[in-house]
Amino acid sequence: MTPKRQQRLFALLGLVVLAGVALGLTLYALRANINLFFSPVQIAMGEAPLERQIRAGGLVKEGSVTRDPQSLDVDFVVTDYVEEVEVIYSGILPDLFREGQGVVVVGKLESDGRIYADKVLARHDENYMPPEVAKALEEAGYTPSDYQQKAARVAERLAVPTSEGE
Amino acid sequence: MWAIVHKFGSPQWFYRLSCRLEPWCWVLAALSLGAGGVWGLALAPADYQQGESFRIIYVHVPAALLAQSVFIAMALASLVFMVWKIKVADMAAAVMAPFGAAMTFTALFSGAVWGVPTWGTWWVWDARLTSMLILLFLYLGVIALRGAFSSRQSGARAASVLAMVGVINIPIIKYSVEWWYTLHQSATFSLTERPAMPASMWLPLLIMVVGFYSFFAALTLLRVRSEILRREGDKRWVRALKEIPS
Questions:
Q1: Residue A164: pLDDT above 60?
Q2: What is the ipTM of this complex?
Q3: Cβ contact (<8 Å) for A57 and B45?
Q4: Does A150 contact B179 at a Cβ distance shorter than 8 Å?
């Protein structure tokens, strides 16, 4: 490699590295804002603003869904296995909504600690399987694990005692 | 060692090599896209939660993979062009950009169509979706920048720098689902872990991925050849080609 080519190579690589560092620092500074939603841990720690449109996400707690038979009103608890938050919603739920399923709710957090949702989105995990396999796994006690790990990391950052050790 | 780089970079040598490789790429692409398509879209089992809409994965995942791989390939070709001034590398970078943009659009569009039944929304500004949209804009920027100069050399240089700097977006796309809370789920495929689905589901997906890659290879070889003919039309070996009746 001639010195001229070497110089060009290093100049270009240097440019890419510099741009990478700049972008990395920017993303680091914005890291909280890039999250699509607040997890129940963050809401419990007071990171989410009150009475403003926010998004909260987690898993629908098993056995927490209560529907009003007369209307479309539904309330349920969203959990990340560390903290919980109650959600009040009126409207049509996505097909994938069910207990134990990941959801993102869009709505206002009121001072009573509940979220009044305008919209509920279902969150899917990366596991796909035919119905027969799912049935077998369910009997063996399957839960989506990626979300749990991430919630545990956030809890660690915010220094909340996790319920896993109990 | 550098002699090999320059030999590979000679348009004439590349033209001959590509003539020999291209048919194999087309055959592999046709076979795997055909087999993977029928297997994935008709024979593979439906998902326990999403039902039939899960089959969008057989287009969405390969397209998204290609969108990112093509950008990396384009950036590498740009680097080779900028450092060693190899013309074929610039031609490759030039023909890859529209293909990559098309793949990015396919991934975004199939993802939006998939999002309606699964998530309950077409679009949400989460880190994965937004970084993919930025990738589409980067591709469009590279294409536009190349055409924005009156001299081909300046356009090629500007597009190369943008491609190389834009490659920073690729790890962001890849790790967005791990660094931040996103609506998009984590990766289905990884090199180190078992796939999060049974073989009857991931095998057709793998075949589709192979098919997309071979289609990309075949198309790139073909388009680089036509680019060579266009740019090197006055060279003696190219004129000699034209005299052969085809």
A1: no
A2: 0.70
A3: no
A4: no
